Amino acid sequence: MTDTTVKKRKKWSVFDIVAFVALGLLALVTFFPFYNVLIISVAKFEAISKSDFYIFPLSFDLSAYKLLLQDMKFWSSILNSVIVTVVGVLFSMTISVAGAYALSKRGMPGRNIMLSLILFTMFFNGGLIPFYLVVKDLGFVNNILVMIIPAGLNTFYLIIMKNYFNTIPESLEESAKLDGANDLYILYKIIIPISAPFMATFALFYAVERWNEWWYALIFISDAAKAPLQIYLRETLITSNSLLSQMAQTMAEQEQTGKVYTPALQMAAIVVSSIPIIVVYPFLQKHFNKGIMVGSIKG
After folding, report:
1. Is the pLDDT of residue 72 over 90?
2. Quick check: 120 and 159 in contact, CB under 8 A?
3. Residue 219 neighbours by CB under 8 Å, 6+ apart
4. Among the listed residues 182, 176, 172, 154, the one whose alpha carbon sits nearest the alpha carbon of residue 295
5. Residue 263: which residues within 8 A CB-CB, separation 6 or more?
């Protein structure tokens, strides 16, 4: 009897049905906000203004996207976020992997003191004003580097990486050293390649953090040309007299074909800003589950 035959004869139990319905409802609740954002972004003013709760797509209009893509401030914010994400992930992964690998070596001088100091920062910090003064002395105020360097290391990720490196058999490194390899060669030619799912998972975590970066920009960036995408979205969603609203009014007056509804512009901005992460995620998803399970192993 083949496995296919066994699967065909399998009957659904009550538990299976309840679990299926519960998970289906949960998926629906999770998906609905994205669906609502998408249909509002392509809705005409006449359709959406007649309903307090717009749930079925009654119109299709790309004017909001057209207007959004004409805004140069939007493109500059996209460019800033791409720079912060790419450079930030490279920087974060470099110092995280190098630091975790060094701390995983039990014979490293001062290892326990360094670990204690790193763990201390997970529970205590100096506060916003001392942090601002330090960043100011480093010359990072109104500098795009403020979104890359001060936020470069996630202590929690560092500890997980260190624990993972502790699980790698020491005999693997000893064999490489017998062939004349040093620690740097072992890290980049042996350890990192065999840890691909693990590295991909934390690269994705760092990428999402850097792409969604807004706090450092809100505190330290006052030049609009250096603001990331999340600050642009914040202004679009909160500020009533935003440049987009002014452009929408001008566009409607010029074309006289109707109004470009402000919520449609806001939702269009959210959709466009989500596309990069949505595109990248499927390529890393195959490594995601395996990387999470590997990182959960206690070292």
Report:
1. no
2. no
3. 128, 132
4. 154
5. 40, 48
Sign of torsion, CA 222 227 230 234?
positive
The values of phi and psi at residue 209, to 5°, are -60, -45
Q: What is the pLDDT of residue 88?
A: 94
Structure tokens at 81: 């976020």
User: For tokens 């010359």, what's the residue?
Assistant: 139
pTM listed for this prediction: 0.76
For residues 74 and 225, what is the distance between their CA atoms, to the nearest angstrom?
10
Q: Tell which phi-psi region holds residue 103, choosing left (phi > 0), alpha (psi between -120 and 50) or beta.
A: alpha
Q: What is the DSSP string of 79-100?
A: HHHHHHHHHHHHHHHHHHHHHH
First CA to last CA distance, the chain = 44
Q: What is the pLDDT of residues 198-215, one digit of tens each?
A: 888 888 889 888 988 888
How many degrees, rounded to 5, is the angle at CA 267 between CA 262 and CA 268?
A: 95
The DSSP 8-state label assigned to residue 168 in this structure reads S
